[in-house]
Amino acid sequence: MSRQTEVEQFAVDYLPKLEDYLRIPTISAQNKGIRKTVDWVKDAFAALDADKVEEWHDQGGNPVVFAEFTGNSDKTVLFYNHYDVQPPEPLAEWHTEPFEPTIVDGELFARGVADDKGELMYRLTALRWLKDHGGFPVNLKFFVEGEEEIGSPHVGLYVKAHADQLTADACIWETGGKNEAEHFQVTAGMKGIVSFDLNVQTADADIHSSLGAYVDNAAWRLVQALASLRDAHNQIHIDGFYDDVAPLDAASKAAIAAMDFDGEAIKQNYGLKRPFITDDPKQAAAAAPTITINGLSSGYEGEGLKTIVPKSALAKLDCRLVPGQKPEKIAALIQKQLDKNGYSDVRLHYNLGEDAFHSDLNDPHLQLAKQVGEEVYGDGQVRFVPMMPGGGPAKFFDDALHLPIILVGVNYAGSGPHAPNESVRVADYQQGTYYIIRLLEEYARV
Prior knowledge:
Elements: H1 3-14, H2 20-23, H3 34-47, E1 52-56, E2 64-69, E3 76-82, E4 102-104, E5 107-109, H4 117-132, E6 139-145, H5 155-161, H6 163-166, E7 170-173, E8 184-187, E9 189-190, E10 192-201, E11 207-208, H7 218-227, H8 250-258, H9 263-270, H10 281-287, E12 292-298, E13 308-309, E14 312-321, H11 327-340, E15 347-354, E16 357-358, H12 364-377, E17 382-385, H13 394-401, E18 405-407, E19 423-425, H14 426-443
Parallel strand pairs: 3-6, 3-7, 7-18, 8-17
Antiparallel strand pairs: 1-2, 2-6, 4-5, 5-19, 9-16, 10-14, 10-15, 11-13, 12-14
Helix pairs in contact: 1-4, 1-14, 4-14, 5-13, 12-14
């Protein structure tokens, strides 16, 4: 039996010891399960004889769990994970119980198994294996937070306050895996985000719709304001929106050119009913900022009829940002554009923002992550991704710690994080366990 086969068998045999983590409904948006989950994570590190396990409360919000292990070299790797998950709704669309981990046809289904509890689980599995087979190749630190699904509002404060404890040579971030072409991805960054509400009120009360002949309608007012920010060809019309976009470096351009993009597979995965909104979706996914309506609400939305002119309307939006763009500035530009377009009564409420982040693809740690990937997943089976379309608080770590950040994981294109029937494939979980072991072994030699 090869070493890789042995590790992969261990990973699947060890999985039941960790599945209770998936059974806890850790929903930060509803303040559920936090205490029980923090205790589980602390106990998991303690069971591996961590040199230090701490629960940080000093910057507010849900606790951060910090753990530290001494390795066999002077190199140090910091891991980032989060323990909170999205709500499971809509429950009727789940084929299994969301908080009862269930394997069906080689896939492990549970809320949070892809984002991000399963990611910590395979890392804990790798630690167990290493501990039982000669020890850890490098010093290890873990930063596990509980507010990622609500925008990580306190992470920047924790990283800055505890920067001395978090020093490392590199950071391995959560999330990643295989794309639609089944190629393993090594990702070097993530887009930023600004999330905000737009609301407008046109009357003190809802009005009989017969008066719609002469009174303004909040729903129409908001829809027209939204349409003024992006045209029918999906071009964003916000003055200054693109002014601070940093140009792509040569390595990023080359990586984007080499990226896979199977448009038909993506359309099938998501059941898309409309064409893509850009002629170059690969470039857009990796390097283009966006403005997206997340939801609209106005007037009567129940069953049956209620013929009214709504008094108010609300829209939730986000913009995915690229390096150089600042969330607060983008929000201000949007309000300024609405005012200019004649919609000064449509007011913006800022919810949260995170900066984009991008590591240097030429960094030795990034290059080694790809090299080890070729060893584990096969020659030609690994792709560099300069930035993932989603976001996260990585920029706080870069600003405070100045270290390369590498995003790798055990998801696949059909994992469906945030959606019903979220899953990872057991085979990917097994491979990912071996991959992280080999990566830590190689990092000891950097």
